[in-house]
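Thread: Modeling a multi-component assembly for a lab meeting

Hi all, long-time lurker, first post. My supervisor asked me to bring a structural picture of a complex we are working on to next week's group meeting, and I have zero experience with this. I have the sequence lines for every component (110 residues in total). Could someone generate the structure of the whole assembly? Inputs are pasted exactly as I received them:
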Amino acid sequence: MENDFFLQVYQVARLIPKGRVTSYGAIAKYLSSPRASRSVGYAMNAAHNQKPGVPAHRVVNRNGLLTGKHHFHSPSEMEEKLEKEGIKVKKDQVQNFDKVLWDPSVELAM
DNA sequence: CGATTGACGTACG
DNA sequence: TCGTACGCCAATC
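Re: Modeling a multi-component assembly
Sure thing. I ran the full set together rather than chain by chain. Output:
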């Protein structure tokens, strides 16, 4: 359904498999708005208010950089969770980003 | 309704 | 290769 743009972002974010990450642009692209990467990040800003708990820590920028870690309860919580899922994070930078990258417009396809 | 902001992305120098 | 500028989309003031 054509829920709010925010809702779609949350839905996709929850679909991110464990040990995988995605980028704001990838989600935006999946929402038929490849240029709405900024809105995706904005949506994540409200993700804190979501009850289900959006795995925003699995969402990073195009560079695989944890740009949004500063918005978590703790700036280290993001990388800590990522490493906990098997993702290697080096100084806010996701290692093997291409390997752990989970693109909804590719994995979910169609 | 207009202006500003933001967890981005791409282009240009 | 690195830094700065501009554009896009949605929400908030």
